[in-house]
Design a protein that fits this description.
Radius of gyration: 15 Å
Order of helices and strands: HHHH
Structural class: mainly alpha
Shape: flat
Number of helices: 4
Distance between the termini: 35 Å
């Protein structure tokens, strides 16, 4: 919802960021729910690893864009890149 409000005000970066991370939480919940329900019984063990790698790549791309916007956003998105890097390392070490 916040992403659509940002788009209406003309802030395309905010719209992209809010909509993307809203979709992240929805898709993560659906992903975990499907795993728990056995829907992905034949999935590889590296599926969460690849999922977090994809979101880490998106975060890194948005982080690069923030260098032209503001220092506060650079710090926020830099911490997101670090978070996803740690999640990837954690998933890779347990797979």
């Amino acid at each position: 919802c916040a992403g659509m409000w940002e788009f209406a005000t003309g802030n395309t970066f905010g719209a992209t960021a809010f909509t993307s991370y809203g979709a992240f939480w929805i898709s993560l919940a659906a992903f975990i729910w499907a795993h728990e329900g056995g829907l992905f019984a034949g999935a590889q063990e590296l599926d969460m690893f690849l999922y977090f790698c994809t979101w880490g790549a998106l975060s890194a791309g948005l982080w690069l864009i923030t260098f032209r916007i503001s220092k506060a956003l650079t710090v926020v998105f830099g911490s997101l890149v670090l978070l996803f890097a740690l999640l990837v390392i954690g998933e890779y070490s347990t797979a």
